[in-house]
Amino acid sequence: MTHKIAVLAGDGIGPEIVNEAVKVLDYLNADMGLGLEFENGLIGGAAYDETGSPFPEATITLTKAADAILLGAVGGYKWESLDIAVRPEKGLLGLRSELELFSNLRPAILYPQLADASTLKPEVVAGLDLMIVRELTGGIYFGQPRGIRVLDNGEKQGYNTLVYTETEIKRIAHSAFKIAQKRDKRLCSVDKANVLECTELWREIMDEVAKDYPDVELSHMYVDNASMQLVRAPKQFDVMVTTNMFGDILSDTASMLTGSIGMLPSASLDCNGKGMYEPIHGSAPDIAGKGIANPLATILSAAMMLRYTFNQSVAADRIEAAVNSALDSNVRTADIYSDGMQKVSTSEMGDAVVNALKAGV
Ligand code: IPM
Ligand code: MG
Questions:
Q1: Which is the catalytic residue, given 11, 248, 335, 351?
Q2: Is 248 in the pocket of ligand 1 (CB under 6 A)?
Q3: What single string gives the DSSP state of each residue in 148-199?
Q4: At 76, is the pLDDT very low, low, confident or very high (cuts 50, 70, 90)?
Q5: Ligand 1 centre from 289 Cα, in Å?
Q6: Which DSSP helix (H) or strand (E) runs through 36?
Q7: What's the pLDDT score for residue 116?
Q8: Active-site choice (252, 270, 317, 337)
Q9: Of 38, 132, 213, 335, which sees the most CB atoms within 10 A?
Q10: Under CATH, what is the fold of the domain 121-262?
Q11: Residue range 263-268: average pLDDT?
Q12: Which of 217, 247, 8 is nearest to 136 (CA)?
């Protein structure tokens, strides 16, 4: 049985970090006979430069035919002045939307070796293991109408629309409750129901779906409070479920609890478990090409791929254990470096993970 993986490296540090994740997958593929096959495709600014579109037809075909997608990052200074319709980010959003990857899992786990790398006090973050479930194909990111218009008085006005249908809320709710069932069975739904009708409906439907999951304890929190609680006492959370934009923001906050945004992987799943796997960080154009980016979020995304799409939990466990073991050996990329550690490059960090696998992890 073969599993086809579409590899979309994208822009900025994308190619560097994806290389390391493929290196790790290649090793496991040979070692465990996983039957993985890779095919490269274009996305984002790289795709725009070559084809005039950030999400070209060939990539649509490739990703639809693939069993899973591994993505690096999109975007960069070079493309910032382009029309919004062809900006690199549109490629990523197009992919999420075209494949209906509505359920975005963003686990924030603190590796104990990195307790010092977090800007928060060690006792606040020690043992942190939280999962953010972000709705990924709806909400204000995709709502119509949207644009920039000229009012009668000649002034420009920008506008976007926050919309969620019952169906969209229900499916992300089920996805989040199921994940909570496999964890500590506590789900916190984050909204702004005191101000936004759209999320008033969100809250109502969360309560309704909760009836199907009597073993999960559901709570609600306003997003402003949730952002505060995440840095005040993050360990109170098990699973959080929220809208597209709130999830975008809260997951960046959560990443800093783990020491670095370079540590957070993600899975974006459709209703059949097909998924796209990518680090939550962006293309970091300021450090691109220097070989100093942290590849661990991408390597951990590859582990999520093995777990969620290919049901290869043993192989996924091995990658996660190998990352642990690489951190135990005190190698650190610049973003997680602290005194006394050994500073390594992107590819040396990838090698450290492969070496841990070779050593029998
Ligand atoms: C993310 C990113 C994207 C988003 C950008 C690159 C479009 O910030 O995956 O969190 O806003 O969803
Ligand atoms: Mg983001």
A1: 248
A2: yes
A3: EEE-TTS-EEEE------HHHHHHHHHHHHHHHHTTTSEEEEEE-TTT-HHH
A4: very high
A5: 21
A6: strand 36-41
A7: 83
A8: 252
A9: 132
A10: Isopropylmalate Dehydrogenase (3.40.718)
A11: 96
A12: 247
Q: Rounded to 5 degrees, what angle do the CA atoms 252, 256, 258 make? A: 120
Is the distance from CB of 286 to CB of 321 less than 8 angstroms? no
Tell me if 311 sits within 8 A of 288, measured CB to CB. Answer: no
Q: Does 154 score more than 90 pLDDT?
A: yes
pLDDT surpassing 90 at residue 233:
yes
Task: State if pTM tops 0.85.
Answer: yes
Question: Which CATH number applies to 1-102+270-361: 3.40.718.10, 3.40.640.10, 3.40.50.720, 3.40.30.10?
Answer: 3.40.718.10
- The answer for residues whose C-beta is within 8 angstroms of residue 89's C-beta and 6 or more apart is 44, 54, 74, 75
Please, are residues 247 and 106 in contact by the beta-carbon 8 Å criterion? yes
Q: What amino acid is encoded at 211 in this protein?
A: K
Q: Which residue has the tokens 């999400």?
A: 55
89, 256, 276, best to mutate for ligand 1 pocket (most atoms within 8 Å of CB): 89
Query: Comparing 1-102+270-361 with 121-262, is the CATH topology the same?
Result: yes
Q: Which residues contact 153 (CB under 8 A, 6 or more apart)?
A: none
Gap between the Cα atoms of 108 and 254, Å rounded: 6
Per-domain residue ranges of the chain: 1-102+270-361, 121-262
Q: How far apart are CA 131 and CA 243, in angstroms?
A: 14
User: What pLDDT shows up at residue 118?
Assistant: 86
Active site includes 77?
A: no
Ligand 1 pocket, residue 280 CB under 6 Å: yes
* Nearest partner of 69 among 7, 151, 152, judged by Cα: 7
